[in-house]
Design goal:
This protein is of the alpha/beta class. The chain is built from six helices and eight strands; from the N terminus they run H-E-H-H-E-E-H-E-E-H-E-E-H-E. The strands form three sheets. A three-stranded mixed beta sheet has the order 4-2-7. The mean pLDDT is 82.
């Protein structure tokens, strides 16, 4: 519809099932249809194929971090899986939050009564496609609507 009939060209359509496929990620980045902050040398790197939850001493399980902070901790491998194998990134929190600036968001969506934050709980692990989906949400929240084409199992409960 977008290509043939120029319908809703303002909406970026992202096929989640292809987000783990590096050539598709490169196409998205080259087309400049959406933004994301994960550098290309990382989404082709094995250590980001998946990351998993690992509790840390001194971190309460209920701790919440910002979506941007969550993405950063995985991309920087701040929490490697172990000293023996630092190649796999882990995350010490399952609760993430996206704070929404209502005034900025109103330039993208005119829907009334929207909340000022989105909180969710991440499952025990995330795949590269999950990481990029969260990155796309974080990077495009104030610039354009994004439609993801398939159901995502990242969140254990219903939203």
């Amino acid at each position: 519809m977008q290509q043939k009939q120029n319908y809703r060209k303002d909406v970026a359509v992202v096929n989640i099932s292809l987000l783990g496929f590096v050539p598709w990620i490169n196409i998205l980045k080259q087309n400049d249809s959406i933004r994301f902050s994960t550098p290309s040398n990382q989404y082709g790197n094995k250590f980001l194929e998946y990351s998993y939850f690992r509790a840390l001493d001194g971190w309460p399980e209920s701790k919440t971090v910002s979506l941007a902070g969550f993405l950063k901790m995985i991309r920087e491998k701040k929490y490697p899986s172990s000293a023996d194998d630092p190649s796999i990134a882990t995350f010490p929190v399952k609760h993430i939050e996206l704070i929404i600036d209502s005034e900025k968001f109103s330039k993208v969506s005119k829907q009334p009564g929207l909340g000022t934050n989105i909180e969710c709980e991440i499952d025990k692990y995330i795949l590269l496609s999950d990481l990029l989906m969260l990155d796309i949400i974080n990077s495009n929240i104030y610039t354009r609507p994004v439609y993801f084409t398939s159901k995502q199992e990242l969140f254990p409960g219903s939203l």
